[in-house]
Amino acid sequence: MRAVQRSAHEEKAVQHAISVDLSAVVVAVTKDEPKVLAIRNNDIDALPSGPLEPQHRTLESGLRVWVETQTRQVLGYVEQLYTFGDSGRSLAAGTNARVLSIGYLALVPEAQPAGTANAEWRNWYRYFPWEDWRDDRPPILDRIAAGLKEWCATAPTPAQRKLRDARVRMTFGTRKTPWNDEPVLERYELLYEAGLVPEAQRDGRHASVAGFVVEGEPMLADHRRILATAIARLRGKIKYRPVVFELMPETFPLLHLQRTVEALAGVRVHKPNFRRLVEGQGLVEDTGGVTTETGGRPARLVRFRSEVLLEGTTTGFRLPVARK
Amino acid sequence: MRAVQRSAHEEKAVQHAISVDLSAVVVAVTKDEPKVLAIRNNDIDALPSGPLEPQHRTLESGLRVWVETQTRQVLGYVEQLYTFGDSGRSLAAGTNARVLSIGYLALVPEAQPAGTANAEWRNWYRYFPWEDWRDDRPPILDRIAAGLKEWCATAPTPAQRKLRDARVRMTFGTRKTPWNDEPVLERYELLYEAGLVPEAQRDGRHASVAGFVVEGEPMLADHRRILATAIARLRGKIKYRPVVFELMPETFPLLHLQRTVEALAGVRVHKPNFRRLVEGQGLVEDTGGVTTETGGRPARLVRFRSEVLLEGTTTGFRLPVARK
DNA sequence: GGGCTTATTCTCAAGGCTAGAATAACGCCA
DNA sequence: TGGCGTTATTCTAGCCTTGAGAATAAGCCC
User: Fold this and answer.
1) Which string of DSSP letters, residue by residue, matches B189-222?
2) Residue A300: which nucleotide is closest by CA–C1'?
3) How far are the Cα atoms of A28, A105, A258, A263, A293 from residue A31, in angstroms, in the given order?
4) In sequence order, what DSSP letters do the residues of A224-270 get, joined into one string?
5) Residue B42 pLDDT more than 50?
6) Per the CB < 8 Å rule, is B87 touching A58?
């Protein structure tokens, strides 16, 4: 019976072609700002991506090839994010063929000048301005709150209304509850459903009930969704695995590490507690060097203790979020 | 330029068909044992699965249809796990077509008797006997340790040797370090690379240097790998999201909840501390009812407070692992 | 009623986290 | 050269959480 299914499967596959797109969110942090590698085309940005081809031995190797040919950037750390496959959302309407897109997250040490004409490092908060709480609450959240309020108010049933209220509360929080940096995708999806991002209008599925869309640059196809997934994953992961070090140079002062984490998480952390965590877990070791580039008292230069990767004791560090 | 890539893509997709398999790990916990829904065929088990077809609107809906037709089981909670695509590992050798397999995790409240002849609920520790530490350390780990020791010893270079030692230490731990329940996939992959599971031999890639394979039932294609991914994901997730309740009946005594968590995690937890966590977070509420079915003093029956899903405060509970 | 079993509550110490104060070391400038 | 501003680095007191086990409660069975 199994065998029968299989062969039915083969036939179908031939009749209805499926193509698979590999997309990469390539992240670096430069001058304390989180950057993502974008392909600029006709006034809309895209992620580096390309179709899976027969000669690619693995999905990941196919991805590496595409990124390198499109951006000249060689990838180090790579991790699969998610496979998107809603028909009607992931492709630029018109075609009938199904396109799956498999999103990947890649981390590279420093943003070197992009190697090709239309590949460029861009601050990721350009696409998600409401996600950057490093200096206080972004003012754009007032507009978002207004738009979402409208959306909640226009729910078809009271039950739906309640559900919408709850979703807004959970993702964007309230004036009282502290900001949660992780549900980046949930927030974007909410804006999409409420028609508050241009992509929703473009896909022709959700119109804005508020009559406006929210600032934040859109991207090609579902690329902004993939980017949101990447940011969310990274924000979660830095808290329990020492992945930040993939973004750091060989040696660095502790404050640089802190600023990098803050850039990713979009929140400030408490300096003394941050160092205690980092040092307490033996994540770094002294190099003996110092730097005066930071101004003020010279800072020790440390380096990642890569042995921790082999020790298995790596809990990663949770963020000692600074209240004020 | 983007457009050019696209159309090249379309052509290729037609020439080299890609087919996509949707596979589900459907989990239930019955009588304190973790069960997975398996399709039994020719002496080898498989996960419910089937190809993605054009009429499936989303990947997830395609999956639901396949599981229901193959097993009569209706799915509730469903979550995407990972997309596997190594050519040569995921398909029963011979065919040249590329097959991607997208794995899903599904949770259902109770293992009802399977609805079709060859669908059956099976204890997942049948496939991973070394993962069940509820009564002490599984004896099979001695054999595994021996096999892996051999594998480490036969590393081509001293550097590789060191790396292999470290991987074994990190995944299976040592006599001293406490067992870590989460790296289920890493452990399986290690056994695969060392040729200690039948799948490795079958794929013709890694022969056992130890001259034997380890107990634990193999599965069709890469299904055991998908199962390992599912167990790992679930073990991680129960610690920070209240997903266990998807597996529970409407009302239950707290010990039942504890036993369910233990079944999934494969370790025992400290009873008083477990209740403190669960109650302290307001995850459950009293029903007023009691049950005497547990023997001894009658137990309060509680129910999941589903409001917590709308509160956003859900940290989930970490496991208060019982030392002894 | 005594013994057995499981449920439920408490307690106490150890460890970790929060928040802010205190101290150190450099450059700059009067 | 001493004061000031800046950043680095170290400490500390208080609070909260966690780990482990003891103590108590409430049924059943004989």
Assistant:
1) HHHHHTT-SHHHHHTTS---SSS---SS--BSTT
2) D8
3) 10, 21, 12, 10, 13
4) HHHHHHHHHHHHHHTTTS--GGGGS-SEE-HHHHHHHHHHHHTS-B-
5) yes
6) yes
B10–A19 CB contact, under 8 Å = yes
> What count of other Cβ atoms lies within 10 Å of the Cβ of residue B157?
8
HSE on the CB side for A155, CA within 13 Å? Answer: 16
- Write out which nucleotides of chain D lie closer than 7 A to a protein Cβ: 5-12, 18-22, 25-28
B170 CA: distance to closest CA in chain A (Å)? 5
Q: Which of A135, A82, A103, A134 shows the shortest CA–CA distance to A36?
A: A103
Question: In chain A, which residue's Cα lies nearest the Cα of B177?
Answer: A313
> Which DSSP letter does residue A76 get?
-
Residue in B2, B10, B20 nearest the CB of A100: B20
Nearest to A312 among B80, B163, B169 (CB): B169
Sign, CA dihedral B48-B50-B52-B54, equals: negative
| Contact between A170 and B312 using a beta-carbon 8 Å cutoff | yes
Residues of A in contact with B12 (CB under 8 A): 19, 51, 53-54
- Name the residue with tokens 């800072």: A299
What is the radius of gyration, based on Cα positions, of chain A?
A: 22
The dihedral through the CA atoms of B189, B191, B194, B199 has a sign that is negative
The residue among A276, A279, A271 whose CA lies nearest residue A308 is A279
Tens of pLDDT, residue by residue over B234-258, are: 999 998 899 999 999 999 999 999 9
Tens digit of pLDDT for each residue in B165-220?
Answer: 999 999 999 888 889 999 999 999 999 999 999 999 888 877 888 889 999 999 99
* Tens digit of each residue's pLDDT (9 = 90 or more) over A197-250: 999 988 887 788 888 999 999 999 899 999 999 999 999 999 889 999 999 999
Calpha distance B32→B35 (Å, rounded):
9
Report the alpha-carbon distance of residue B180 to residue B193 in Å, rounded. Answer: 20
Residue A17 scores a pLDDT above 80: no
Which of the nucleotides lies closest to B301 (Cα–C1')? Answer: C7
For tokens 């204890």, the residue is B123
